[in-house]
Amino acid sequence: MRIADVLARKGDTVVTIAPDRTVRELLALLAEHGIGAVVVSGDGATVAGIVSERDVVRRLHAAGDSVLDGAVSAIMTTEVHTCTPDDTVEGLMETMTARRFRHVPVVVDGALVGIMSIGDVVKRRLEYLQAERDQLTAYISS
Ligand code: AMP
User: Fold this and answer.
1) 117 closest CA partner among 1, 2, 6, 5
2) Which of 44, 52, 104, 141 is the most exposed place for a label (fewest CB within 10 A)?
């Protein structure tokens, strides 16, 4: 299954935050949208970084709560792994497992067109396996 098929069903909404906003504002976005990571972007289209709840937890542990009033750019990951709508869900699942992150922005010609989370990947994979199981069961009993 292609990423494009997943985006067609889940939509192309991506929550972004500008690099100069504070970590406190980031936490508000994570809570408000019920998500685990936000793409950092100055213009809402170009990916400047990604920041997840793990980054906040690590920095809080290392530096204390002064991190909350600092800029998101100070804690974001700048080497962002992205994918395209033509990539496969199976390939993305392998990348997420090998590289130990749970979010991958989808980019076309340098612009954000969606985001994939590990939840999206697992959901589609389970649906696929269930459909395959149903087909095999129908085949065996026919
Ligand atoms: P996550 O598992 O997505 O919460 O992220 C774990 C760590 O990987 C955090 O330090 C994130 O900033 C980083 N990270 C998350 N997604 C990506 C990505 N697509 N490319 C590179 N780093 C990422």
Assistant:
1) 6
2) 141
Nearest protein CA to atom 5 of ligand 1, as residue:
101
**Under CATH, domain 3-141 is a member of which superfamily?**
CBS-domain (3.10.580.10)
What is the best residue among 26, 27, 47, 50 to mutate for testing ligand 1's pocket, by most ligand atoms within 8 Å of CB?
50
Residues 6+ apart with CB under 8 A from 20: 71, 72, 73
How large is the angle between the packed helices 118-141 and 89-99, nearest 10 degrees?
Answer: 130
pLDDT band at 38 (very low <50, low <70, confident <90, very high): very high
Q: How far is the CA of 20 from the centre of ligand 1 (A)?
A: 19
pLDDT (0 to 100) of residue 125: 87
Residue written as token pair 């494009």: 4
